[in-house]
Amino acid sequence: MLSDIRREVREIVRTELQVTLQYYSDKIDEYEEKISRYESNLKTVENQCKDMKNTYLNLKLKNDVLEQKINAMEQRQMSNLIEICGVSESENENLQDITSKICAKLQLSSADASKAYRKKKMRPNVAVQGPPSPIVVSLREGCRDQWLSSSRNTSITGRDLGREDSTRIYIRESLTPTTAFLLWKSKKDLKETGLCKFVWLKNGVVLAKKTENDKAHVIRSESDMERMKEVFS
Fold it and tell me: Which InterPro entries match (predicted)?
């Protein structure tokens, strides 16, 4: 009788164990299938993220190139413009007369300058008084380089315009906001930090080189400038 009871108990325990093991085996298979689907979905999401990132980088590159081309076109349209900086502003000022006096100082023909106007301030309502707005002068085709060269070899002050102040007046190329920002940023981040010795502008293009004997690098965008930090460091 005891033997029969033990046999029955063993059978009951064996059956229960088999049922339990089968249950957990099925659950493990179910979880493995879910994990497999999850990993597959995760891989799909990762691939989609990579595709989106590559698309973003591609679009950003195209946008940067497009902005550079637009800025270059706008800069070429300003190839016959110069800016006279440092001339204090006054009411009812005669900009053509100011331009003529500077022409005489530079020993250039006033007929080269067809039009002159004050450049609008970017933030006219700012309370802090900044430097006077430059005078933009439109020149005859092909005259700009001569004006720039003559101004580099001639010292001009307010006294040359019949004024009492001796503030230095200088002439520079007229720049688009993008080019002007790149020039300022390059001088600040490259030259003033000592990474390079020369940052200058030529024909609307920002150039930089580490020493006098090194080759010049063109800076057309902020990414170019960041790359120059690595090159010059």
Answer: FP_C (IPR057251), FP_N (IPR004941)
